[in-house]
Amino acid sequence: MSDSLTLHSINLATVSPMLIEGRRIMSGINKLPVSTLLRPTAITLGKLGLAGDEQADPTVHGGLAKAIYAYPLEHYPFWEQACQQHGSRHAGTTLHHGMLGENLTISGLLEQDAYVGDVLEFADCRLQITEPRQPCFKFQAHMDMRLAVKLMAQSGHCGFYLAVLQSGTLRAGESCRILPGPRQLSIAEAFRRRLRRLD
């Protein structure tokens, strides 16, 4: 594992309606890049998340412990192939950053190497890894794949939530240092344990 990662994009969304099985559900999952490697705009980061980003259900994403959701760019080919195999409306397209509902699209830190308590130190802010993402029915609808939740569970490609230890600004293209915490529980293992509890 590397001791640094790269931030490829920062992705935001406002809450908007989704139609799921005939029901109108509010969601902030449809995140779009606002700071990219080509246009590395600085985005303000506060204790509750990024300026301009909204969450519809703070029990799932939001609050101090889940202010930010990060997802590895390395997993995008898996989802592009899954969309193709399972007849998603996204089949045959290159998925844009933020498509998995993440605020930060990163590379260099996968779930098996990310530990609860590790700190990501950027130039102007610090974030701490807190827990894995638990996929839900909104993710399944957004991906237009009936098996999306199952595929995330089977693959372990869940990404992770972060708490904001130090507010500041972030921009795409930044590298950050990974400062080790206790290293007792990886995100991959935390995800497996959570799935076992749900069985």
From TrEMBL:
Domain MOSC, chain residue ranges per copy: 35-179
GO-annotated molecular function: catalytic activity; molybdenum ion binding; pyridoxal phosphate binding
InterPro entries: Benzoxazolinone_Detox_Enz, MoCF_Sase_C, Pyrv_Knase-like_insert_dom_sf
Sequence intervals crossing the membrane: none
Name of the featured protein: MOSC domain-containing protein YiiM
